[in-house]
Design a protein that fits this description.
alpha+beta, globular, 5 helices, 7 strands, Pnp Oxidase, Chain A, 141 residues
């Protein structure tokens, strides 16, 4: 497991975006070898990502078969400010439920309101915690 070198300008910018952005794109590898990309809500603590999934989602099966994933943030309107992270994902039952994770509930209060469900409903439906351990950062500015 590694960490982003925040002593560099690019590292500091990437770190800030990973803490502030609302959505990250997660790419897993399906059973047929094809990449599958989907958006996810997430928390970044400086070393790993925590996100939540429906237990029967394809991404859970993909991670169990092949833990290598990439995560990327949307670029700016010019196609710049790109942040891509590679890492290893795992189902993490030791993590708190989404609705018991105070930082997650605080970060996504807007989403619970916007989509009309409570943190408890989200925690029930997205009951499978996933942790992605950081391995490598690529940035393009």
């Amino acid at each position: 497991m590694g960490a982003i070198d925040t002593r560099t300008e690019l590292g500091a910018r990437a770190e800030q975006r990973l803490r502030e952005e609302r959505t990250i794109w997660m790419c897993t590898v399906g059973g047929n070898g094809a990449p599958l990309v989907r958006p996810a809500w997430f928390l970044w603590d400086g070393e790993q990502f925590v996100m939540y999934s429906e237990p029967d989602a394809a991404k859970v099966r993909h991670i169990e078969a092949n833990p290598r994933v990439s995560l990327h943030l949307d670029p700016d309107e010019w196609g710049e400010n790109v942040v891509i992270v590679t890492g290893r994902a795992r189902v993490a039952p030791e993590q708190p439920r989404a609705d018991e994770n105070e930082a997650f509930v605080e970060k996504y209060a807007w989403g619970f309101d916007r989509f009309g469900f409570s943190p408890a409903e989200y925690g029930r439906d997205y009951s499978t915690p996933i942790v992605v351990e950081f391995e490598r950062l690529r940035t393009y500015y």
